[in-house]
């Protein structure tokens, strides 16, 4: 599918993944007012910006799509895939850890499974929409997964709710939350 084609209606969750994931993450942070939710959102942002920086460093071209202009940005690693892989694995690691004790067992299983399936769909859509090659998407998934493991370990070993809560409260008061 060329980059300029809007695609069928049922592809919207994939073609507009950046909007859906950003809005969903923002809503999660605002509704829960949890330090861990804010940490999760910050991790997504840092992962995405790091993937963009790596993309500029590697300067790997995007695939050429017939009928579309030459892409002006680089493709390795896929930033969308990095972000969604980060979120998917971070959610899984959090649901499997003891840092989410109030979550019922069915949610600890179904939430990561559903989000993992969506993440796989987003990653695949980057290829069939012609934005990335398979190696670019795999590099993005690997980058996001490694980042999620590191970010999760940082929360487990240092950040934790009791340490992060005062910082989030201070920032929340500053931005009017």
TrEMBL record:
Superkingdom of origin: Eukaryota
Entries under Gene3D superfamilies matching the protein: Phosphatidic acid phosphatase type 2/haloperoxidase
GO MF annotation list: sphingosine-1-phosphate phosphatase activity
SUPFAM superfamilies (alphabetical): Acid phosphatase/Vanadium-dependent haloperoxidase
Keywords linked to the UniProt accession: Membrane, Transmembrane, Transmembrane helix
Classification via InterPro entries: PAP2/HPO, PAP2/HPO_sf
Signal sequence range: none
Transmembrane region(s): 9-31, 109-128, 134-155
Positions of the Phosphatidic acid phosphatase type 2/haloperoxidase domain: 37-152
Protein name (Swiss-Prot/TrEMBL): PAP2-domain-containing protein
